[in-house]
């Protein structure tokens, strides 16, 4: 079908609004993230979940308590220090609930 309205698409095949998925604009990256991670680990160097269970283990992940994809914010009151193991368990539980990361290429949240 020849389309002459300037869009290049017929009404049956409009451009999909989801083809360019938004990145998590709320997610902090780069040097600001490195600074926030360093501040969090200086303030609270141990894994919060391990401490709850009486285990002493260094935190390696800056984790969002409520994920950004579930409406959480990238603010200090919504982050916690976790070790890799606890972070993996929490991430697996989020995936089981159907939470998808909008920016899955970065592990060191």
UniProtKB/TrEMBL annotation:
Q: Gene3D superfamilies under this entry?
A: 1.10.30.50
In alphabetical order, the GO MF annotations are: endonuclease activity; nucleic acid binding; zinc ion binding
Q: For the region Disordered, what residue ranges are annotated?
A: 1-24
Q: What is this protein called?
A: HNH nuclease domain-containing protein
Q: Read off the SMART domains from this record.
A: HNHc (SM00507)
Q: What is the lineage of its organism?
A: Bacteria, Pseudomonadati, Pseudomonadota, Betaproteobacteria, Burkholderiales
* Annotated organism of origin: Comamonas testosteroni TK102
List each copy of the HNH nuclease domain by range: 35-88
What Pfam families does the database record attribute to this sequence?
Answer: HNH (PF01844)
């Amino acid at each position: 079908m020849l389309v002459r309205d300037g869009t290049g698409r017929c009404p049956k095949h409009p451009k999909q609004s989801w083809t360019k998925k938004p990145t998590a604009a709320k997610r902090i990256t780069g040097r600001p993230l490195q600074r926030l991670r360093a501040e969090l680990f200086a303030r609270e160097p141990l894994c919060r979940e391990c401490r709850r269970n009486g285990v002493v283990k260094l935190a390696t992940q800056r984790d969002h308590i409520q994920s950004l994809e579930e409406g959480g914010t990238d603010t200090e009151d919504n982050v916690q220090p976790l070790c890799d193991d606890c972070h993996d368990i929490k991430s697996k539980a989020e995936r089981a609930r159907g939470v998808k990361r909008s920016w899955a290429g970065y592990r060191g949240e």
